[in-house]
Amino acid sequence: MDGKLGTRLKEERKRLLLSQHDFGAVGGVAENAQGHYERGDRLPKSDYLIAVGKIGTDVLYVLTGERRPIDAESLSNDEAVIVEHYRDLDSVDRKSVSRITSALSKE
Q1: Which residue in 41, 36, 10 sits closest to 23, CA to CA?
Q2: What is the rounded average pLDDT of the residues 6-21?
Q3: What is the pLDDT at residue 39?
Q4: Residue 80: which of 71, 69, 67, 68 has the closest Cα?
Q5: Rounded CA gap, 72 and 80, in Å?
């Protein structure tokens, strides 16, 4: 079975700062089932994906590897300020910010 879906699911769980136990509970499954999903041993069902989607999991990304487009209305005030500041930067500084945020977002 392709483990990429499981890898992306794990990325989303970590992005949301949840343990396997807590993330699985949101989806209505036990921690061991969550582990099976993340290792690619089993595929999650639609009700699980709907439930984890409600807490901010990018289900499109989990399933396809493509990120859900972000619309301006979905940004928090803090996120909107960051985007505004980013747009004021020159291209060199934008690349630096991109490298920094990329490094910080990976565990």
Answers
A1: 10
A2: 95
A3: 96
A4: 71
A5: 8
Average pLDDT across the chain, whole number: 91
Going from the C-alpha of 85 to that of each of 72, 94, 95, the distances in angstroms are 15, 10, 14
> Residue 50 to residues 6, 15, 53: CA-CA distances in angstroms?
16, 17, 5
Q: pLDDT digit string (tens) for 18-42?
A: 999 999 999 999 999 999 999 999 9
Smallest CA-to-CA distance from 27 within 38, 64, 39, 70 is with 38
Rounded to whole angstroms, the Cα distance separating 87 from 21 reads 39
The gap from C-alpha 42 to its chain's centroid, in whole angstroms, comes to: 19
Domains of the chain: 4-64 (1.10.260.40), 72-105 (no CATH)
